[in-house]
Amino acid sequence: MTPRILFIEDEPAIREMVELALTRAGYEVTTAHDARGARSRLSERFPDLILLDWMLPDSSGLDLARQLRRDTQTRSIPIIMLTARDAESDMVLGLESGADDYMTKPFSPRELVARIKALLRRSNPRRADEIFEHHGLRLDTASQRLTANGHEIRLGPTEYRLIRFFMTHPERVYSRAQLLDHVWGRTAYVEERTVDVHIRRLRKALEPTGHAAFIETVRGSGYRFHPHP
Ligand code: CA
Known about the structure:
Elements: E1 4-8, H1 12-24, E2 28-32, H2 35-44, E3 49-53, H3 61-70, E4 79-83, H4 88-96, E5 101-104, H5 109-123, E6 131-134, E7 137-140, E8 145-148, E9 151-153, H6 157-168, E10 173-174, H7 176-184, H8 192-206, E11 215-218, E12 222-225
Parallel strand pairs: 1-2, 1-3, 3-4, 4-5
Antiparallel strand pairs: 6-7, 7-8, 8-9, 10-12, 11-12
The structure holds calcium ion.
């Protein structure tokens, strides 16, 4: 499977150069030019590795790295920080924020590719925890497959993101506004009742195997994923 890399960088020239080098090296690359865009990409799909620029227009790369480390869903994604700073104290700060490696600009694309390869090799065993299972409902986030009692369930992209969010955050009640934030991302403008529409579609897909009941409506509050036999 082609490793996916998320590259967060606001300078278009560097973004293009690195994107080209990584694509040529056989990686699938998605880009974002600020922290907001990065969060929206992350809500669509998890990458295998994140390349993160230190200075972003809306946030510092350090803050974003810390946030990624705090979230259980993104905690294990390896991060390489890119920066023009090269003082030793900055490097230490970068690594302490949760980055796994560090490169200073200007860098050679060849060296970057070599570092990515090495880091992916080191962190590969951590991908083993990407399977979530609750009473016959099984989600494999690496292949983005959901199965119920062994049968594959086909979902639209929003329903997939919803069930992934629920299965990785079971037993907690989320309001429609919270679901919009987590599943659609803060950048999307969507009405709260849109959530209900997608919940209905998701329940319909889970109905034949009896798993629809796992998604509970909590009156006056929102929804909860409550897996039970
Ligand atoms: Ca920058």
